[in-house]
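Supplementary Methods, section 5.1.

A reviewer requested that the exact input to the structure prediction be made available. We therefore reproduce it here, unchanged from the version used in the analyses.
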Amino acid sequence: MTSISRVSTSAAAISEQEIFAAHEGGKLSVESKMPLDSTRALSIAYTPGVAQVSRAIAAEPERAATHTWASRLVVVVSDGTAVLGLGDIGPAASLPVMEGKAALFKTFGGLDSIPLVLDTTDVDEIIETLVRLRPSFGAVNLEDISAPRCFELEARLVEALDCPVMHDDQHGTAIVVLAALQNAFRLTGRDAGAQRVVISGAGAAGVACANILLEAGITDVTVLDSKGIVSAGRGGVAGVKADLAARTNPRGLTGGPAEALAGADVFIGVSSGTVPEELLATMADDAVIFALSNPDPEVHPDVAARHAAVVATGRSDFPNQINNVLAFPGVFRGALDSGARRITAAMKVAAAGAIAELVGEELRADYIVPSPLDPRVAPAVAAAVAAAAEG
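The structure derived from this sequence is encoded token-by-token as follows.
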């Protein structure tokens, strides 16, 4: 089996004082693209020159796309109900996270982004707010919104807005999981279509992972929630889970983790639960284990490595971090570059393929996805997404 070693990181050495100092006053600022160092510059940027641009947009609304920042601006929207590792902390407390997300958009995708935290958890109110603000932005990144509301909110916003909308907690995770899984299969010589995959967690990430794997041709997918295997015959399965039950679990399994994991090739953990080692031992030889919960994986990577050929986590201090930053900057960049009004399943699968391909011949058990800091990632993902949108 594989040997897991910690990735060198200085995170443990960062002091609380340094963290709070870095966040003081927030992490974002707005800077002018043109210097305002003369009366001439002021006359061009503001009055009276700006009036000419405003009149032109009033006469030809499509010119807003070329003469304002709105068409390239991503709003990071949250109600603070499902902040990673923190839970329902509310909009104000979630704002530092959203500021960080906006900074990632700029750094890795070259896209301007602003955080927008809303003091409501009502789906109708959130939709109404964003519909009214639509002239101010070009795309919506939904973030840290609790399930099952997140499914309804995203679906209804996609219909209500004429611009790209994506809930990153769902689809960013799913895209990177698919990319990592594709390379894990390539490394171990597996046929993707013949694999038995178990997903632990039927929340935002779990549902999206199941959907993208099915879209990519991996048909034997079984999903677990806190009550066991999500199946059509189980009582109390409704809504999104009912739809999921109708499209997964082709073997008709019932029961819990023991029944699901016996003989399985792949385990993907996106829940806050734990998995006993004795159940991992019942999986197929040279299994693939992605224990992605943060900060505590469903199983410690060292334990997983006793039973798996490839192990991944959501943590930066172990190899193969499944990090959403590999996906979302390039996905939104590609969608905006292509003028797409929606981010489709085909665009997400294309993004995963682009991420996986960057690993190339360097593929090994502790390197199945590129580093989040790899400068090739966002441009490659953007190009693949734009091509899928235009194709």
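Residues 18-32+57-169 form a domain with the Rossmann fold fold (CATH 3.40.50.10380). These observations are discussed further in the main text.
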